[in-house]
Amino acid sequence: MADPKGFLNHGREVAKSRPVDVRLKDWNEVYVPGSLLPIISKQASRCMDCGIPFCHNGCPLGNLIPEWNDYAYREDWSAASERLHATNNFPEFTGRLCPAPCESACVLGINQPAVTIKNVEVSIIDKAWETGDVAPQIPERLSGKTVAVIGSGPAGLAAAQQLTRAGHTVAVYERADRIGGLLRYGIPEFKMEKRHINRRIEQMRAEGTRFRTGIEIGRDLKATDLKKRYDAVVIAAGATTARDLPVPGRELKGIYQAMEYLPLSNKVQEGDYVTSPISAEGKHVVVIGGGDTGADCVGTAHRQGAASVTQLEIMPRPGDERNTVSQPWPTFPMLYKVTSAHEEGGERVYSVSTTHFEGDEDGNVQWLHLTEVEFIDGRLTPKPGTERKIPAQLVTLAMGFTGTDRDNGLVEQFGLDLDERGNIARDADFQTNVPGVFVAGDAGRGQSLIVWAIAEGRSAARGTDRFLTGASDLPAPIRPTDRALMA
């Protein structure tokens, strides 16, 4: 145990953010560089090294949280990094992007603010990169087997790295022009700078993983041809079919899916554009959807110089504190969350539904009409007399995703079965109905969190390795049927 009295002597202290007026002038990460290390030892000491660490239940990766908390408290960064990487291929991703269900399950969180697990995690990995403790793990021998991984998001990269280290020759196919999937083009730079992806890619290249960008399986290369080339295939193509809003006026110019809008600002940071082809500059922006993707749109619009930003959510405003009856510890509670993007301004409106859009004579959206809604007999119902309109010259739809892409032919060409939710069906080894074809991440689970994606990639890698060799020593932290800890 790090410090038997740590949780009594120290309160919760999180990473410091740069002032709003400063960070809105650039696209760098919002946190003050280096602000965590001076405080992280005390924060790690708050871990009680519980006899039953429920943080493990909250984390699908099975992260050894009390162990690396102890090493961080003692500032043994090399040992902390080893324990961190034992269960997580990319802790710098999860430490920045995961909503930390481990903290919701922290035992200390029953009656005190939880341990800052996420901040400890990112401090350990940043220190590991700084000191050279992150090195390529090159396999001692090659198996002679080949694997194609479709998709380079967190699930695909995790599967690829595990299989490469097991000695297989792995090629990752990505339809975009750069590796990273939604990490690259769906997550704004201010949440995670892309240098973190780049150095992991270089590590994976050094280990032997090969990358093929600009190739969409199903369109540019038939799935059947891919299967002939490789001994096994792992599909980690994500759940990229966005939920639409079929209301009058949807066809007006200026209404975009979030994943049409966000990647362009990232491409500006990559140097592909001087300014984004879809910019919020000087416009009244409305973001439909109250989740993390919606918040990403809010922060992006602020940095582009929007005249105003309004975020709409059809559900009621969550509470500020855990409801111990409907969302008891250690489940992940739905709480009112103020992200860095929300700190930067804008208005958040709850319990409203869009009825239609109104445009000008040139077909550009100008107004969004909405109505308040309430639950009646378990259904969201419009409240009479609450209709109004708000200015909307740029609208982004951030209402989630409904499944993997069906338009590119990948599902049909492989002949894959789907489950009742429209995801690619798989067995206990993450194998589809087609022998040698496996699925990991959102393509099989449905829209989920980055920590689940990495866990899926690791587990699918074990199933693939066992298919290729008859046995596997690779870890499988989750089963395909496992779900988040919910009430």
UniProtKB/TrEMBL annotation:
Keywords: Amino-acid biosynthesis, Glutamate biosynthesis, Oxidoreductase
Pathway(s) served: Amino-acid biosynthesis
PROSITE patterns attached to this UniProt entry: 4FE4S_FER_2
Statement: the UniProt record of this protein carries the keyword Kinase: no
Keyword Oxidoreductase applies: yes
Lineage, top ranks: Bacteria, Bacillati, Actinomycetota, Actinomycetes, Kitasatosporales
Descriptive protein name: Glutamate synthase subunit beta
Domain 4Fe-4S ferredoxin-type, chain residue ranges per copy: 38-69
Domain of life: Bacteria
Biological source species: Streptomyces coacervatus
